[in-house]
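Q: Given only this backbone (374 positions), what sequence would you predict?
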C-alpha cells in the first residue's frame, strides 16, 4: 500500500514539473521565441538556474493567458533593503513584476536587486544592502520550525512515559530508530565514552540537513542544501566544534608530529592545512551532491523540450525515456537525501573523535617489558 502511494506521489510530482516546464516553453514561443523563419527555442539554462539558485519568490509555473501575456504562479517574499543614501525600504517582491518593472528606485535583475536612476539605468553611486527573506532563508526557517516542533512533541511523549513504559506512537516510531542509529553507529564508535556530550549536536545536524534535503525535492521549493552558503555555515560550525574540542594530544600532534626532525618542517604545514580541509570537505561534499542531483533531473526533463524544438515527433517520442530516467534519478535523490545527512554527521563525528582522542600506550611494548623482567 505504501509503495503504491509513493509511486502515485512520484507521478504527481513529475506531472507538476512537466506542466510547469511545458507552460514555460509555450509561453516563450507565444511571447516571441519564434517567428516565421526560426523554430521555437527552449532555454534550458534559464530553467536550470531558476531552480537551483536563490530567488525572492517561490515560483511554481508560468502560463500565457487569453490576453496573450505571460503570467506566473508563485508566492512573493518580503524585500528588505537598506541604503546609506536612501535609507530603509520594505515591500513585497511582487512589486518588481518578475524584473519587468522598477519600484522605489530599485530593480530586480538576474536575482539581484540594484539601485536605478529615474531613466532606469543602474545607479552605481547608491550602495544597497539586501536583507530580504529569500526562498532559501524562508525554507530554512520553516525546516527549523518543523524540526523544533517535531522534536519537542517526541520529547513530550517520552516525558509522559510513552516509548518508555509502553510502545511509542505516531512520529515517535519513525524518529526513535534514527536516533538510536546515530547514537550506536555514529556517536559511540567515533567518540567513545564522551559520545553523550556531542550527541545533541550530531542529531541536530543530521535531522536539520535531512529535512532540508527532503524539502528540496518538492517542486517549486528551494534547494537549500545545494547552496554553498548554507553548507559553508554548517562546515564552519563543525570546524569550531572540532577546534574547541581539541585536547593537548591533538594540538601536540599538529605542532610536533611524531616524525624525524627533518620531516617536521614539511608535516607541520600539512597538519595545519588538514585542519582547514576537514570542514572544507564537509562543505563541498554536501553542496556538490545535492546540487548535482537537481541539475540532472532538470536536464533530463529539459531534453523533451530541446528535442521538441527540433521536431515535435522526436520530442513526444523521447518523452517516455526522459521521464523514466528522471523518475529513476528522483528516487535516487530520495536515498541521497538520507545518505548525505548521514555522511555529514558521520564525518563530523570522526573529526571530533580525532580531536578528543587520548594518548594510547603501546600495550605490546609493555607486554615485552613484563616478559623480559619475568
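A: Predicted residues:
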Amino acid at each position: 500500500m505504501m509503495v503504491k502511494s509513493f509511486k502515485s506521489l512520484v507521478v504527481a510530482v513529475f506531472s507538476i514539473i512537466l506542466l510547469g516546464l511545458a507552460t514555460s516553453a509555450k509561453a516563450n514561443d507565444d511571447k516571441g521565441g519564434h517567428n516565421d523563419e526560426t523554430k521555437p527555442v527552449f532555454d534550458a539554462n534559464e530553467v536550470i538556474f531558476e531552480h537551483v539558485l536563490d530567488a525572492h519568490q517561490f515560483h511554481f509555473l508560468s502560463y500565457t493567458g487569453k490576453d496573450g501575456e505571460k503570467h506566473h504562479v508563485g508566492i512573493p517574499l518580503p524585500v528588505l533593503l537598506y541604503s546609506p543614501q536612501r535609507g530603509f525600504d520594505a515591500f513585497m517582491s511582487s512589486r518588481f513584476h518578475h524584473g519587468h518593472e522598477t519600484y522605489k528606485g530599485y530593480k530586480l535583475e538576474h536575482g539581484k536587486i540594484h539601485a536605478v536612476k529615474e531613466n532606469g539605468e543602474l545607479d552605481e553611486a547608491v550602495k544597497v544592502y539586501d536583507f530580504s527573506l529569500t526562498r532559501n532563508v524562508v525554507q530554512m526557517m520553516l525546516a527549523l520550525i518543523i524540526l523544533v516542533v517535531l522534536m519537542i512533541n517526541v520529547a513530550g511523549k517520552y516525558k509522559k512515559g510513552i516509548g518508555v513504559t509502553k510502545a511509542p506512537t505516531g512520529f515517535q516510531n519513525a524518529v526513535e530508530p534514527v536516533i538510536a542509529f546515530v547514537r550506536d553507529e555514529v556517536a559511540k564508535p567515533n567518540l567513545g565514552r564522551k559520545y553523550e556530550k556531542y550527541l545533541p549536536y550530531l542529531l541536530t545536524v543530521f535531522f536539520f540537513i535531512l529535512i532540508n534535503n527532503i524539502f528540496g525535492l518538492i517542486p517549486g521549493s528551494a534547494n537549500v542544501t545545494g547552496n554553498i552558503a548554507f553548507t559553508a555555515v554548517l562546515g564552519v560550525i563543525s570546524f569550531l566544534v572540532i577546534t574547541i574540542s581539541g585536547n593537548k594530544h591533538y594540538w601536540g600532534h599538529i605542532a610536533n608530529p611524531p616524525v624525524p626532525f627533518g620531516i617536521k618542517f614539511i608535516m607541520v604545514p600539512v597538519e595545519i592545512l588538514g585542519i582547514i580541509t576537514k570542514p572544507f570537505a564537509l562543505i563541498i561534499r554536501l553542496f556538490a551532491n545535492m546540487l548535482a542531483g537537481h541539475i540532472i533531473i532538470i536536464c533530463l526533463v529539459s531534453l523533451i523540450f530541446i528535442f521538441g524544438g527540433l521536431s515535435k515527433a522526436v520530442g513526444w517520442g523521447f518523452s517516455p525515456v526522459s521521464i523514466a530516467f528522471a523518475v529513476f534519478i528522483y528516487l535516487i535523490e530520495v536515498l541521497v537525501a538520507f545518505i548525505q545527512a548521514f555522511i555529514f554527521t558521520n564525518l563530523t563525528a570522526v573529526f571530533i573523535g580525532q580531536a578528543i582522542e587520548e594518548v594510547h600506550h603501546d600495550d605490546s611494548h609493555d607486554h615485552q617489558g613484563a616478559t623480559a623482567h619475568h
